[in-house]
Amino acid sequence: MLINSLSIKKSQTILSLTISALLFSTSACSEPTNNATHIASASDSSNSSNKQTNEQSSASKPSFTTQTIATFDEPWAMSALPKSAGENEPKLLVTQKTGELFIVDTATGKKVAIAGVPKVAYGGQGGLGDIILAPDFATTNNVYLSYVEAGTVSESNKYGAKVIKAKFAGVDSVNPSLQAITPIWQQTPKVEGQGHYSHRLLFSPDGKYLYISSGDRQQKDPAQDMSVNLGKIIRLYPDGSVPADNPFASNKDISSQFWSIGHRNVLGMSFDNKAQLWAHEMGPRGGDEFNLINKGANYGWPLVSNGRNYSGTDIPDHDTRPEFAAPKISWTPVISPSSMSIYSAGSHNDFPTWEGNALLSGLSSQALIVVTMDATNQVSERYRYDMNERIRSVLAVDGEVFLLEDGNNSRLLKLIAS
Predict the structure, then answer these.
(1) What is the structure's pLDDT at 41?
(2) End-to-end CA gap in the chain
(3) pLDDT band of 351, cuts 50, 70, 90
(4) Coil, helix or strand at residue 322
């Protein structure tokens, strides 16, 4: 009996350890590219770890197929240009990490390279990053880009994100280019390693403020350090100056840039229809987060997390430190969220049941995740679509939805409601 009891106990221990290993098996810092074979269309299957998603009936979940528009090598971000008179489909600006920028006509699939992109430090998670239009693009043709810059002299072999403004010349010509480049912001200090730049860009709905996500650069501690701008969400005027009503503006130092602190790797930011700022970030080993971003709030990294360290050691959960803002929802196993776009009907309204929902692209999860936020800011995962490929970016524009796959020979897809 003693032998049988010990054997049972040993089996239970092995089972417990196996479950724990599976629970935290996928790292949220899921950035390596994937060159798996592409498939023809998206799956409508639900693969959610959240109860809310599993409870959705198949009849209530919109379905779609996909149309391939164009292919890219290591694309990172996309942004829509204003439609010209008579245009039904948008033209998109698409960045590639290796430093290329393209206009792609989604009606024809034609791609045109844009000259004048600054030299980028490509490697790891770094390279050319985000691109957005200036609020006054219609009159100025100004755009904002983020990219990784290598250090020189005392900062040799160190890297940091940089944000610039540029004039987009020759938009409708065969030789478009970026001109009149003006520096706006940079990560300080540059550090070794090539991860967690974040460098996502977003303008406020009124066009007055530029928000920049600045990752912790895999250094952890800077996220709580008020003397460096790593691990923060930054808020500036479009010219790079600091608004006087920023939460730490009275400090008259680098912290005057900060809107919120305690972030790890924010790769998605969007405003909802109430002008509330939402952001998601990758957790460590588990604990991806979806946060409502409030002025001056501290989100706790690396002091708290709903995930664990990569070594397997524990990190205190958010509920142990109520002074830190807790995520509205977190994911373990992780989804590795890489971008976010909030759906609005527009002239197409292809997915009316997604109205006001956040669309998240997933890398390790190889999924499109639809998240709903109710009137009281309660959040839940609503749907999950298995795309069978790492998804780098999602963009909802004028009621249509576009996805960018990750890695080489990756497709730009348009979702076709069915």
Answers:
(1) 29
(2) 61
(3) very high
(4) coil
